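Consortium newsletter contribution from the modelling node. Members have asked for a concrete example of what our holo predictions look like. Here is one, prepared for the flavin mononucleotide complex that several groups have been discussing at recent meetings.
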Amino acid sequence: MALDHPLQIGAVCVRPGLLLAPMEDVSEHPFRLVCRQLGADMVYTEFVNAEGLLREDPDGPRRSSHKLDFTAAERPLGIQIYGASELSMEEATRIASEREPDLIDINCGCWVSNVALRGAGAGLLRDLPQMRQVVRRVRAATHLPVTVKTRLGWDAASIQIVEVAKMLQDEGVQALAVHCRTRAQGHKGDVDYSWIPRIKAAVEIPVILNGDIISPQSARAAFDSTGCDAVMIGRAAIRHPWLFREIRHHLETGELLDEPTPLERAELCLHHLQLSIEHSGERYGLISMRRHYAGYFRGVRGAAQLRGELCQFRELAPLEARLRQLATRPDTSEAAVAVTAIS
Ligand SMILES: Cc1cc2nc3c(=O)[nH]c(=O)nc-3n(C[C@H](O)[C@H](O)[C@H](O)COP(=O)(O)O)c2cc1C
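And here is the predicted structure:
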């Protein structure tokens, strides 16, 4: 089913539709590139605060506008923005559109209190007229396709995702990604995919399923049981960035690929580290890699010690040497990694 029809959003046309989720401090240029290289069809920036972008001092560190940076190799790419005020969202859309991403995505799903309780992110699910205003202004401010990422509803008692989907379609939104939990659930509790077919029956725009896709089998089951147009993967991509190619292979052949070898793990980690340093410089590049070591060496014997060891490095050269040692040792094997890690 996943391979039958592509995900089409404006000029973007991908198949089977395996998307890397926007994730703060994670979906940065280096990780997006790694995931694209491993078979993600499309990627998103982490969310960018509209007010933050507007307030930014041109002579200051430019943290928000740095988040808009991307390279051609990452395309197709969506820039995700968030905010409660339609005016700042409109202006932020203009700024983001100058970068010419493939689409602008509006975050209507962030559950974190200092976003949602201020009326942005999932807070917009409690004020649908305001969500409509935001979407309208964003649409008017860009020539690019506009998409929305949201949740089922604020809480279990107020799920109105089908009405939301219809409203968004009426406002010209070109695709909808749904994290199949409520705001009240945060990232915990069961996902409820049963809403996806109901949304699909109500609208014609593509519907992207998000939440707990963790394996090739769960991706296939999600496509088959819901008729979704794409799946969006967050945490499982951090744990295992190879997941994209594994899902693709499974959908195409019904087979499961072998786990990456310790050698492949070390090589990819080294590649990611190099991208990270190029992107953020040595200090922040090393810090931002720390959240990825557990994923790269998961399942390898001695992984916990190895992760601890890698996180201790404060300088690039010895860390690179350590990863190179792991990647080039002809006898690199689970045992060798484990032994070296402990020694
Ligand atoms: C560390 C982290 C950061 C996140 N940041 C964002 C974000 O910037 N924008 C957004 O729409 N969702 C964000 N999310 C939510 C994910 O995009 C996704 O909806 C959620 O993790 C559920 O998908 P999963 O089960 O595949 O992880 C974040 C999630 C995590 C774990």
